[in-house]
């Protein structure tokens, strides 16, 4: 993973273009518009596996990273098996891109999407963030893709008292805001603050009236006290964060920062090393985080049992 980070370090600090899905992607680079048309069409009919495979470069060299994977899926057969598994698990699965931000050269995009369906008789709806690097020879197809999301949202329907998935951020609600502006934090400083578990300093990088969206929150929260409590709760379940900046894309005052590395998770009191990835979106009044909390709230045994219940 560290080699992958180094290979794409030069893509950081790109200016970017952004478009909501309802805008028809008209402000995006041409190759990204072409890709998003195909991506959206597939999302309307996810059982079209060939259409999904056509989203990736055709020479078989594409890689697909996902929450919970130790290594990427790097063969066409593996990518096919992955989406076929999703269709078996969630026969009514639907995928709707909602926001797209791309570098002006069209080499990189971040897509935020809504995923819906039914698991174990219960409706599920969760948001995913996709970091996409497009092919040099096929710029409207993905060379390297990473999906960041919270697996707890998928596993909750099969959890029970013996194998629970406690709400890591349960009870955290908004607190009063304040007029103080945020302090600009360069990428290297944010990296250090994440690794040293400095909640208050990370929150200070945002306006006192900014909102935070993240795993475990049904709605954005506001107020520095609440935002700090959220990060404190996070750092209470994960430590030894060793993160390196991956891809960065900027659009006006909004920045998407990918963080890649390792951590020690403490889910179920069962400490163990895990690969860890996070996407951080920052802006003047909006801060959002996307990461997986499954290993932060569940023991290895619980994760194993719940995976068996879902995937057989």
TrEMBL record:
<keyword id="KW-0732">Signal</keyword>
<dbReference type="InterPro" id="IPR032710">
    <property type="entry name" value="NTF2-like_dom_sf"/>
</dbReference>
<feature type="domain" description="SnoaL-like">
    <location>
        <begin position="39"/>
        <end position="132"/>
    </location>
</feature>
<protein>
    <recommendedName>
        <fullName>SnoaL-like domain-containing protein</fullName>
    </recommendedName>
</protein>
<dbReference type="InterPro" id="IPR037401">
    <property type="entry name" value="SnoaL-like"/>
</dbReference>
<dbReference type="Pfam" id="PF12680">
    <property type="entry name" value="SnoaL_2"/>
</dbReference>
<feature type="signal peptide">
    <location>
        <begin position="1"/>
        <end position="18"/>
    </location>
</feature>
């Amino acid at each position: 993973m560290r080699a992958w980070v180094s290979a794409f370090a030069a893509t950081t600090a790109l200016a970017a273009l952004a478009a909501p899905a309802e805008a028809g992607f008209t402000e995006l680079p041409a190759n990204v518009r072409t890709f998003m048309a195909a991506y959206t069409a597939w999302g309307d009919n996810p059982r079209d596996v060939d259409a999904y495979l056509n989203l990736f470069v055709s020479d078989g060299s594409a890689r697909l990273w996902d929450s919970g994977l130790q290594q990427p899926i790097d063969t066409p057969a593996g990518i096919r098996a992955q989406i076929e598994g999703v269709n078996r698990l969630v026969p009514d699965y639907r995928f709707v891109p909602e926001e797209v931000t791309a570098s002006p050269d069209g080499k990189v995009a971040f897509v935020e999407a809504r995923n819906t369906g039914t698991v174990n008789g219960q409706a599920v709806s969760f948001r995913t963030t996709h970091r996409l690097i497009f092919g040099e020879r096929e710029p409207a197809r993905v060379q390297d893709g990473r999906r960041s999301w919270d697996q707890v949202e998928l596993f909750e329907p099969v959890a029970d008292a013996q194998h629970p998935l406690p709400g890591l951020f349960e009870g955290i609600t908004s607190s009063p805001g304040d007029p103080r502006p945020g302090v600009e934090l360069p990428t290297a400083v944010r990296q250090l603050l994440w690794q040293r578990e400095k909640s208050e300093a990370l929150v200070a990088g945002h306006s006192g009236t900014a909102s935070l969206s993240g795993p475990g929150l049904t709605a954005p929260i506001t107020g520095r006290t609440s935002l700090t409590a959220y990060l404190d709760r996070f750092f209470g379940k994960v430590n030894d964060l060793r993160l390196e900046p991956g891809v960065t894309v900027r659009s006006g005052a909004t920045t998407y920062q990918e963080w890649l590395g390792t951590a020690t998770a403490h889910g179920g009191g069962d400490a163990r090393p895990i690969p860890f990835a996070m996407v951080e979106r920052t802006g003047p009044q909006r801060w959002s985080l996307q990461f997986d909390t499954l290993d932060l709230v569940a023991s290895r045994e619980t994760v194993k049992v719940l995976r068996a219940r879902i995937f057989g």
